[in-house]
Please model this.
Amino acid sequence: MGARCDEPALLIEDLSCHLGELVALGREVALAPGAALWSEGEPALEIALLLDGRVQVARETGGETIALRQLLPGAVAAETSTLEAQPRFTTLRALEASRVRLVPGTRFREFLRRQPELLEQLFWLQVRRVRSLPRRPGRSRSVVDAPTGLYARAFFCERLVAE
Model:
């Protein structure tokens, strides 16, 4: 949550400059460890602002789970599908007791319309995240190590070769 509001647009990795306004738009939900806030395939009607705890963004298909990313307090979990109320691409699961603020997609869209520069930041952040995903589907594996939050060695090596 250490981003400065005067940083160049493409360097901001979180919405800490805008958290107050986002918090006011939503409702709070508590998650127990292991609880899913949402699952892949469900309608994407809300975004989540992580207040406390740690959550994992994962793909859960065919009985396999691929951990894509861990989110820490201050992170916003949203998918482009939320902008159109389409089915979700990922599952969001609490790794530890967590509190999130759920903001309806309609309110989030209004929020972005008032701040078009923020929409551009989110777009480029999403592009970077998609580009960092594994290129080949594999057996159940994680992109990040759950205890440390660091990239897994196999994923790091794959990305190093790709870059």
Residues 1-13 have pLDDT under 50 and may be disordered. Residues 116-131 form the longest helix (16 residues). The beta strands are 27-31, 36-38, 46-52, 55-61, 64-71, 76-77, 91-94, 98-104. The helical segments are 19-24, 105-114, 116-131, 153-162.
